[in-house]
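Reopening this one. Same input as before:
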Amino acid sequence: MLAILYDVHGNLPALEAVLGDAAAAGAERFLLGGDYALFGAWPAETVARLDALRGTTWIRGNGERWTADPQLAPLPPVQEAARACAQALGDATVARLAALPAEAVLDGVRYVHGSPGSDLVGLPPQPADDEEALLAPVCERRLVAGHTHLPFERTSAGGIALLNPGSVGMPFDGDPRAAYALLRDDGTVERRRVAYAHADAAEAVRARFDGAWTELVARRIETARFEQDA
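Same output, byte for byte:
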């Protein structure tokens, strides 16, 4: 059984809760879908914990690109967060994560961070007008994507099974519990939520780092909403 983990965002307690739940469910392999370290209070510790797992397949998210080159991030607060994350990770780890592949195909399933060809354009829970164009490169029966932090499972107009497992470290659907998914050997999917001390994780961001971005990140962890203003 494969555990699918996306958007951990340096939230080590959320990751530990998910790994414990996945182990209890019998997961033996892990698909790691990008955005591992940026924003949370434990960037290096989170990557080290993921490095310790066996049976992993990694892909890169926009967070890894931004951490390697903060000027690519869209706003000054995010650039500041990326610089803080890079300093915590160290040059070698930053370079290693930035060099990860943008997608992977595993057991006939394609995994991307945002959508095929982009780690910034996400697939929404409801179909969008441009969806079929975004999905045109996909020839697999199932596509898994994250980035939006909004879990869903549906089938595209073209018959592709779409899955967003949600975010381990920073959900945006109003439920602060860590989100991930299990893909069983028979092809069935189980989306799971795991409670953890999310308020403590938010407070740890405020305590660990300085900068205007920390309050925004902390509030997102607390509320599980995509608030745009701190």
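So the earlier flakiness isn't reproducible anymore. For the record, The first helix runs from residue 12 to 25.
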